[in-house]
Design a protein that fits this description.
Elements lengths: L1 E2 L2 E2 L3 H34 L5 H19 L2 H5 L3 H4 L2 H21 L4 H28 L6 H20 L1 H7 L5 H23 L6 H47 L10 E8 L7 E7 L4 E9 L3 H17 L7 H15 L5 E9 L4 E7 L4 E5 L2 E5 L2 E2 L13 E4 L5 E5 L1 H4 L10 H11 L5 H15 L10 E8 L2
Parallel strand pairs: 7-10
Antiparallel strand pairs: 1-2, 3-13, 4-5, 5-6, 6-7, 7-11, 8-9, 8-12, 12-13
Length: 477
């Protein structure tokens, strides 16, 4: 270039600008990738996303540091941010290492994870000390050498573990080791080259470090995506199996409510999850006689559902004594004591004989039976021990004369233990209040109102806290 002041070569100007441009482009890409990874983790909200959080933060910090090395970028910032760039640069320099180790920890198990946890603690401690030194005397590199030593040691260990198949299988969760081996070795080679060049005062291109980090980030991201996809496949398999289990459990419940001359029966069954530990069944002998069982297995989900299915089978063995509630529960207890292991079951059995105008009731650690007659609600308790505790337990029976207009309600504890936002249970008094206020409604209408009241009782947006089963029986003329 020729000016009035003489000849000036453009090369000294082009080289710094080329470096500025590379830093800005690379930094922008890494920040974008980091934010994308964090957004993915926030949207997915499932297990196994923490590695995307740490990788996202790592990439964002690395990109931000590249951008802050560009004077063009820094001078374009608002003045209040520009003044804080040195502090931000020091903070990122110290914070990026713990984040990097935390990302590696998500792929590690056993002793390697313990080693990386120690590296996180050391780099956090030196980071806090380094930031303290910077705030006091403005020197941000007092402890950088210690962090570099920890980083080099950890990188050497990681490179060895990843490269040796036996060590990788023992110490890491790797669906595909090859990509991570390549990425780690590229990054380790670049780091060794950079450190040697620094020691020998040899000038290096900044782009080499950027490419090394890009290779490592791609490798870690590739492995993280593989782990996430494998987790999704497992979850899909579990969901399919739960759907099948739900169909099976539904098939062992009564397909419809029984029809009898002088009884009107309505039921409501609301499992907390796909499968439940609640169970109910009818032993329908004829149009005048029926036995009703309601049971509740401790716990939730698949284990409780398996025991609930066993109750269905056990009921077949006691069908011959269906008119004797105490014998029914004693028979169930003998079977389940051998099969239920540590699972305990509360149960209630109610027998009706409308020809004789009587009912009989027995229970095993179950909430009271409610009987509504005119304006009164009576709690009927006739409890023995929970099923599965002692193989030879006895269950007392209470005989109940029935009259037209009587209403009986069997339920599981998911009804009365449902809590509101203050942690207060729905309780027996609230249950009785709803039953009393709907005295003139039919059985189905009462159940609908009860479920509606339970929904309103729970905090808005909260999930059901337990399995719910309700059986209403009205004695009609």
């Amino acid at each position: 270039m020729v000016t009035g002041f003489g000849l000036i070569t453009a090369e000294p100007l082009v080289t710094p600008l080329r470096g500025e441009l590379l830093n800005m482009m690379s930094g922008t890409v890494f920040v974008f990738i980091g934010l994308l990874a964090c957004c993915f983790a926030a949207i997915r909200r499932r297990g196994g996303v923490r590695i995307f959080v740490w990788l996202g933060l790592w990439s964002t910090m690395y990109g931000a540091r590249l951008l802050m090395e560009s004077s063009v970028f820094v001078t374009a910032l608002p003045q209040w941010i520009e003044a804080r760039v040195p502090s931000l640069n020091v903070a990122i320099t110290y914070a990026i290492l713990p984040v990097a180790f935390l990302a590696w920890m998500e792929l590690s198990v056993g002793k390697l994870k313990t080693f990386l946890r120690a590296a996180v603690l050391v780099t956090l401690a030196t980071g806090v000390a380094g930031l303290g030194a910077f705030s006091v005397n403005g020197s941000g590199d007092r402890l950088v050498s210690l962090n570099s030593f920890v980083t080099d040691a950890a990188l050497a260990v990681l490179a060895i573990v990843v490269s040796v198949p036996r060590l990788a299988r023992k110490s890491m969760i790797l669906p595909n080791r090859t990509v991570l081996v390549v990425g780690t070795l590229v990054f380790a080679t670049e780091a060794l080259y950079f450190n040697l060049s620094l020691a020998l005062h040899y000038k290096t291109w900044r782009i080499t470090g950027t490419l090394g980090f890009a290779a490592l980030l791609f490798a870690l991201g590739f492995v993280a995506v593989q782990i996430a996809l494998e987790a999704e496949r497992r979850l899909l398999t579990i969901d399919n199996e739960l759907a099948i289990a739900h169909e099976i459990q539904t098939s062992i419940l009564p397909a419809s409510n029984p029809e009898l001359r002088k009884l009107a029966v309505a039921t409501a069954y609301r499992p907390m999850t796909a499968v439940a530990g609640d169970f109910y069944d009818f032993v329908h002998l004829d149009e005048h006689r029926i036995g009703i069982l309601v049971a509740d297995v401790t716990g939730h989900g698949v284990p409780a559902a398996i025991i609930a299915s066993m109750i269905k089978v056990a009921m077949q063995s006691v069908a011959g004594c269906a008119n004797q509630p105490g014998a029914v529960l004693a028979g169930l207890n003998r079977v389940l004591s051998c099969q239920a292991r540590a699972q305990l079951i509360s149960a209630a059995y109610l027998w009706f004989d409308t020809e004789k105008g009587t009912a009989s009731y027995s229970a095993a650690g179950h909430p009271p039976l409610l009987r509504c007659r005119t304006a009164n609600i009576e709690r009927i308790v006739s409890n023995g021990t929970l099923l599965g505790v002692l193989p030879n337990s006895d269950y007392p029976v209470q005989e109940l004369p029935i009259l037209a207009g009587d209403r009986f309600l069997l339920y599981t504890d998911g009804v009365i233990e449902s809590e509101n936002a203050k942690g207060e249970p729905f309780g027996e008094y609230k249950l009785e209040e709803v039953v009393q206020n709907n005295r003139g409604s039919g059985p189905a209408a009462l159940l609908s109102e009860l479920l509606n009241q339970l929904q309103q009782w729970r905090p808005e947006g909260s999930e059901q806290q337990d399995d719910i089963t309700l059986v209403v029986v009205d004695v009609v003329s």
